[in-house]
Amino acid sequence: MNRRAVVLLSGGVDSATTLAVAQAEGYRVYALSFDYGQRHAAELRAAQRVAQELGVEEHRIVRLDLRAFGGSALTDDLEVPKGRAIEQIAAEIPVTYVPARNTIFLSYALAYGEVRETGDIFIGVNALDYSGYPDCRPEYIRAFEQMANLALKATVEGRWRVRIHTPLISLTKGQIIRKGLELGVDFRWTHSCYDPTPAGLACGACDACLLRRKGFQEAGVPDPTLYASPPPV
């Protein structure tokens, strides 16, 4: 099978599992990550490890400077929320939301896909156990896909259609982890924390750490993450 797909790869649990799903569906994967001015490089190191271990066709890291705009605790000198209850996490859009990030990333994926002659793009968005980001919702993905099919030379010429694949969108974090394990993902390769220590340990208290820990508990498997301060059980 010679199908190709672009997979957005952040280095976290969701994107690593999404990459494994794409491969299991018979796609040759072209992984795309971004050095966008985020607070740390740990997730990029994780993305490189995941891409290497899962054997992608190609892994590109594109450099952007979203710190030029700021407006997020991930790209500005704002405090990362810590110690919130799980119920609070999706109740409002948090300060860790990066303005228009998925729109920017998907636009780059469109360009990469057109060069690699594919309209299949995989993204690990999730609308259940997530941080309330508006660009993770099904209605956003549908709208972007509709726009994308109006935007490319290849689609206008009728050579293919853009399909935004969201295999995890209706899964809980526990279900995502179980699926990843079934497909051979070693979650020691991945990184989720928004605010790791200089030594690379996960903080254990940010929203991403709490959701990650919750997922492993629900999946009933040990959490391999090295935490500076273990999240509450």
Report what the structure shows:
This protein has eight helices and five strands, in the order βαβαβααβααβαα. The chain is an alpha/beta fold. It has a single domain, classed as HUPs (Rossmann fold, 3-Layer(aba) Sandwich), CATH 3.40.50. A five-stranded parallel β-sheet has the order 3-2-1-4-5, sandwiched between helices. Helix 1 links the parallel strand 1 and strand 2. Helix 7 crosses helix 8.
Task: Describe this protein with a few key phrases.
single chain; about 230 residues; alpha/beta; globular; five-stranded parallel sheet; 8 helices; Rossmann fold
Number of domains: 1
Bulk shape: globular
Distance between the termini: 44 Å
Helix content: 25-40%
Provide the succession of SSEs. EHEHEHHEHHEHH
Number of distinct beta strands: 5
TL;DR?
The protein is of the alpha/beta class and 233 residues long. The protein is built from 8 helices and 5 strands.
Set down the secondary structure blueprint.
Layout: E1 3-8, H1 13-24, E2 27-35, H2 42-54, E3 58-63, H3 86-89, H4 101-115, E4 120-122, H5 138-148, H6 153-156, E5 163-165, H7 173-182, H8 207-219
Parallel strand pairs: 1-2, 1-4, 2-3, 4-5
